[in-house]
Automatic annotation (TrEMBL):
Residue ranges constituting the AB hydrolase-1 domain according to the UniProt record: 34-279
UniProt keyword Manganese, yes or no: no
Pfam family of the protein (one): Abhydrolase_1
Keyword Hydrolase: yes
Keyword vocabulary terms for this entry: Hydrolase
InterPro entries in the record: AB_hydrolase_1 (IPR000073), AB_hydrolase_fold (IPR029058), Epox_hydrolase-like (IPR000639)
Protein's UniProt name: Pimeloyl-ACP methyl ester carboxylesterase
Gene Ontology MF term list: hydrolase activity
Length: 295
């Protein structure tokens, strides 16, 4: 179903809405060819990939960048249980199939990377290749949270688990809290770019939907989360900005048993957590080279 959306913010992207299970996912789309799906992180939305969408399309790929459930123009279901990682992974499987593809190359940053990891585990048949940007493999993240240095970096995981208070805090002072998350990006985000972000954050229920990712994750018993992990079949590339203030560099490389087909970890020493913004051209080149020429 095609509807008016935000694709006009860039050069004529196609907007669409996919009915996937019990949610409706907004996405933008560009190009023709093999499907590449770009999954944004927190607190971004499809627009976080603004520097990759058109170059990837120009390289011969059909690019789909959705708003994850809870974000921007996608459905924002009530309740923490609606943001269980199994539901998030099922959304991406459903989106790939709804767009008429049997499978896709999956690219994810931050929370989008976590969803990409889990989609590749839960639904390997729809993931041809996997590219992860500054998102620790779930086992690595769990291990990291046992160390004080990573706990200090991840304090907001536990703040967001609180009821109601986080929503009040993030909305204050023109969304200062969320804008502060993006402070490390270089070059800095412009006022016009922030205006687009604020429009997305201001959608009714979006702040709660975004924060519910954290609430759901901290409610999941660690043993249950670990028991759900499976080796990933897809060839995998990890791209890592070494100046990440939220995730330590020791979390970049997954265990071989978890990702037996890891191609490599490409570390970009001057990039922050927002690696796809800081080194946009390099990230696009890495994706194109790894995903391979269109068939």
């Amino acid at each position: 179903m095609e509807q008016q959306g935000q694709g006009h913010w860039l050069n004529g992207l196609r907007d669409g809405y996919a009915e996937v299970g019990d949610v409706r996912l907004h996405y933008v789309e560009a190009g023709d060819g093999p499907l590449v799906v770009l999954l944004h992180g927190f607190p971004e939305f499809w627009y976080g990939w603004r520097q990759q969408i058109e170059p990837l399309a120009a390289a011969g790929f059909r690019v789909v960048a959705p708003d994850l459930r809870g974000y921007n123009l996608s459905s924002r279901p009530d309740g923490v249980d609606a943001y269980d990682i199994d539901a998030l992974a099922a959304d991406i499987r459903g989106l790939i199939l709804e767009r008429g593809a049997a499978s896709a190359a999956l690219v994810g940053h931050d929370w989008g990377g976590t969803v990409a990891w889990m989609t590749a585990m839960k639904h390997p048949e729809v993931v041809d290749r996997l590219v992860i940007l500054n998102a620790a493999h779930p086992r690595k993240l769990t291990q990291g949270l046992h160390h004080p240095s990573q706990l200090q970096k991840s304090w907001y995981f536990f703040f967001f688990a609180l009821p109601e208070l986080p929503e009040t805090v993030v909305r204050a002072n023109d969304w200062h809290f969320f804008r502060h998350f993006l402070r490390d990006a270089n070059p800095a985000y412009t006022r016009d770019e922030f205006d687009h972000y604020i429009e997305a954050w201001s959608q009714p229920g979006a702040a709660t939907g975004m924060i519910n990712y954290y609430r759901s994750s901290v409610r999941t018993p660690p043993k249950r989360a670990e028991a759900a992990l499976r080796p990933i079949d897809a060839p995998t590339l990890v791209i890592w900005g070494q100046r990440d203030h939220y995730l330590g560099p020791e979390l970049a490389e997954p265990d071989h048993d978890d990702v037996p087909h890891l191609d490599r970890v490409e570390r970009l020493p001057d990039a922050s957590h927002w690696v796809h913004h800081d080194e946009a051209e390099r990230v696009t080149e890495l994706i194109v080279d790894f995903v391979g020429p269109p068939l």
